[in-house]
Design goal:
twelve-stranded mixed β-sheet; six-stranded antiparallel β-sheet; 2 domains; 18 strands; outer membrane lipoprotein receptor (LolB), chain A
Length: about 425
Amino acid sequence: MAPYESDDSTTGDEADDMRVGRRKAARYVVPVAVVGVAAVTIGLVPAFAGSGDPDLPDVSAQQLIEKIAASDVQQLSGTVKISTDLGLPDLGGLESSLGGATGGGRDGSGSSADPSSKLMELASGTHTLRVAADGEDKQKLSLLDKAAEYSVIHNGGDVWAYDSASNEAYHMKDAPSGSAGKGTKGRSEDVPATPKELADEALKAADDTTSVTVDGTAQVAGRDAYKLLIKPKQSGSTVGAISIAVDAKTGLPLKFTLTPASGGAAVIDAGFTEVDFSKPSASTFDFSPPKGAKVTEGDELKSEGRAGKGHKAHPEGSEDLGKGFEGLNVIGEGWSSIARFDTGGGKGMPSENSGAGDAGRFLDSLGDHVSGKFGSGTVFSTRLVNALITDDGKVYAGAVTKDALVKAANAAK
């Protein structure tokens, strides 16, 4: 099947149509470098589940992208298996070393049910989620553990989160549908947790640095699907390929897999193991705090400065990190793009030698010291995103190799 790229044999009106099609779908296809660091995200079984490749009508990559864009599934329920292998140490240990600075600790400074910290668990390991939706105003996501369950329920104007392990609940009011805050904003919009959310992040802009093709068919969760394959054309990217399984009937992404250029297991892979497009029971979205549960109101935490006392536990000097990033700009384009900014402090990251304690030791364990025309600094690496922090406080980051970061830093001098 033909790739979604211009071809030397395509001329005149056909070429114009292709360019228009690219722009129309531009917000749906992007290098994951810019995907919010695929951010904060996700992987699972390496192979597509199913009993063979279904025989489906041929479609072009452009048609498949537009099918995803036009997908408007309002009602569903199912199970998503998700895991992430960024090559990071246990992030829970870092949170402990920071004294609960993320605000989700159990020391009275915040709530263990706060979605903004709880769902960060999806950044590592393998997890099973139950999801349900009935339109824009009713959604539920449950993170299942061996002995506990954590749920976020959006029902009309309320968002509830409940952690059964600590018997704590978190409540906040949601903006009405149609406003800037509609949907499951309270769930933490920074953490894509389903194949569609991941695909929406990955599929936002197609350009000449990207190869997009249809890579056959598959069966996922008992559904016939097309496979959309996205690859960088440029060298220097840590992204090998992104594969998205798209439901042949509804256009809903059923599985998302990101493999690194270095090979090995997927960095991010999330997929439905079960899915049902019928209307969930209304009781699915009902919630009342159990007897004896500690209930925290989100507005109360905001009035205290996001998470109350928790932020006072930052290591000395670390509260200044990230303040006033200066001169943010992007070097290069597409998959090889590198974000460059100045922390404004004139110095690099805290280290054990700088007196930052456990947090400093954690950062040192990730770092690889480098030098060049730019001076010296430390590269912090994952299997997907790398960042060079120079000793004078400059930061270069992207889904690119260490050598690409050093080269960019040298060129900036």
